Amino acid sequence: DIQILFDNLYPSLPQVQNGTLTGLCVTTTERSDLAKDLPTMRESAPELANFDVSSWFSVFLPKGVSPEVLSALNFQVKAMLERDDIKKQIAAMGARADYGTPEQFAAFVDSETKKFAGIIQKEG
């Protein structure tokens, strides 16, 4: 008997839709296209106006990998994410594909690390 659960939308959504789970909100900054009736946490409570927690997946390479290898892999990932079949599969999970340069991703990872390190430090 679980009283509260934070889960990715995709595995829990069927249970929300059939009424065995009550969906309260999504933790992303925008409502999901698969569950437009679920508000965001930001909408649910003014004190959570800056709340933004979402799952993300990526490919990491060892430090010091050659720029040529990094560029080639980034190009292939971008090409894969632009395929219509991949876009459909990702959308069906309530997710979205995003990509950029390795430098943009490094900055994103750095900001996520700092965000969660700050939360951990504050909460002890």
Observed structural traits:
mainly alpha, about 120 residues, about 50% helix, 2 domains
Could you give a quick summary of the protein structure above?
By secondary structure, this protein is mainly alpha-helical. The chain is built from 5 helices and no strands. It folds into 2 domains: 55 residues, no CATH class; 60 residues, no CATH class.
Folded structure, characterized:
This protein has 124 residues and is mostly helical. It has two domains: 1-55, no CATH class; 56-115, no CATH class. The protein has five helices and no strands. The protein has helices spanning 9-17, 41-44, 67-81, 84-92, 102-123. It is globular. The model has no long low-confidence stretch (mean pLDDT 90).
